[in-house]
């Protein structure tokens, strides 16, 4: 028996013109942890509400490993977090997450991501977000996708707006013991369908549908 027989998510693949997104194997997870240790953003700013990147490099790496293992172990069809490693030419460049609660009923997903600092500024953030949006809308039949970024995070906000998200209110948080304003964003299926999209291919989804809270017989366009 293969791993995919017991854990179908291991066979899920998303491919774009430049990237492959998949559940990481152990070596890829170690590479991702090392990437986090090398740095994810300018230390002068903090784009995350949970300031995990303020830790020492070895602790950043450990937190990446533990977070992925925790999400794997806690997976339920009614409460899941899929964290995919992002590869360019076989090299780990970052991670793209997508998650939901009661997806079979609510049909809403949230996303989050980061890239190693060496890979910023090349449009990869847009391409990897577009990949999981294709999974959500075309693959799983989502109706809504939500995201958020602090108002000084122009790169993340730019990705969202490029992909058609609309403002959905604000939240006030405390980051590094200072007030910070987070801009919420929302993308409806109709907006996604009418926008310009990155070509995305999905492999291995059918066997995973029950893991996302959907029946294998679900009539969803875009499945492969």
Automatic annotation (TrEMBL):
Residue stretches making up the N-acetyltransferase domain: 43-188
SUPFAM superfamilies registered for this protein in UniProt: Acyl-CoA N-acyltransferases (Nat) (SSF55729)
A Pfam family it matches: Acetyltransf_3
InterPro entries: Acyl_CoA_acyltransferase (IPR016181), GNAT_dom (IPR000182), Ribosomal_N-acetyltransferase (IPR051908)
Protein name: GNAT family N-acetyltransferase
